[in-house]
Specification:
The structure is a single chain. By secondary structure, this protein is mainly beta. The protein folds into 2 domains: 9-94, Class II Histocompatibility Antigen, M Beta Chain, Chain B, domain 1; 106-240, Immunoglobulin-like (Sandwich). The chain contains 2 helices and 19 strands. The strands form 5 sheets. Strands 1, 2, 3, 4, 5 and 6 form a 6-stranded antiparallel beta sheet that branches. Strands 7, 8, 11, 12 and 13 form a 5-stranded antiparallel beta sheet that branches. Strands 10-9-14-17 form a 4-stranded antiparallel beta sheet, with no helix packed on it. The chain is globular, with a radius of gyration of 20 Å. It starts with 8 loop residues before the first strand and ends with a strand.
């Protein structure tokens, strides 16, 4: 979260192991200011293997079967986080509490599989290349907030540039004319990006309650994805469908 005294970020990767082939196993720990407890996770070829529940001192495998082939002691993650916390305090003091740069995210929305009307499907909101790892994702259906059927991943590190990525999943049943919107809020955003579809039905107008700073991406079920619109964040947004 934000803190009046300033914000700091420290990232200490665990040892990197490279196999004989092109696959890479990467472990990383993240700590930031503002009262955050931090995050510790491992991934293989950018797929998450596990993270550590720091509060309950427990290793959480992304798939239960992963824990049958290997193990990880949660206490090791706590040691990494303690190391990061100490280093972060030193970095904040040395930088005279200078705020870190806010890097805005890129956002994409797409279905997991081809959409069929009346059949349960999953929409994916992929948010990437952002920093710090402080971000809110909200789903809307026809302008109304959706809370049921929503799942999110942890913040995954991008080793290429020390930024982060995150997935949000919405389980839904496609019906004609429905519009699903993924709203993303991040400190680095100052404008509004809207992906609007070409309509196949008679025009109608809805208001999407996007907040500043945020990104909104719209998906119209059964329609072809259309043009990219750019609008100022402080102006009301209306989309004809």
């Amino acid at each position: 979260g934000r803190c009046a005294a300033g914000w700091g970020l420290s990232r200490r990767p665990s040892p990197l192991t490279v196999s004989a082939g092109p696959s890479v196993t990467l472990g990383g720990a993240v700590m930031q200011g503002g009262g955050s407890s931090g995050e510790f996770m491992f991934e293989f070829d950018e797929d998450k293997i596990f993270h550590v529940d720091l509060e309950n001192k427990k290793t959480i495998w992304r798939l239960p079967d992963f824990g049958k082939f290997t193990s990880f002691e949660a206490q090791g993650a706590l040691g990494n986080i303690a190391f990061l916390r100490k280093n972060m305090e030193i970095m904040i003091q040395r930088s005279n509490r200078t705020r870190a740069e806010n890097v805005p995210p890129e956002v994409m929305v797409y279905p997991e599989n081809p959409v069929e009307l009346g059949e349960p499907k999953i929409l994916i909101c992929f948010v990437t290349k952002f920093s710090p790892p402080v971000l809110n994702v909200t789903w809307f259906k026809n302008g109304q907030t959706v809370e049921k059927g929503v799942e999110e991943t942890d913040f995954y590190p991008r080793d290429q540039d020390n930024s982060f990525r995150k997935f949000s999943y919405l389980t839904f049943i496609p019906e004609p004319n429905d519009i699903y919107t993924c709203q993303v809020e991040h400190w680095g955003l100052s404008t509004l990006w809207v992906l609007a579809p070409f309509p196949h039905t008679a025009p109608r107008t809805i208001s999407l309650p996007c907040l500043t700073p945020s990104v909104c991406v719209c998906v119209c079920v059964g329609c072809v994805i259309g043009s990219l619109l750019h609008a100022k964040a402080l102006r009301p947004m209306m989309i004809g469908v």
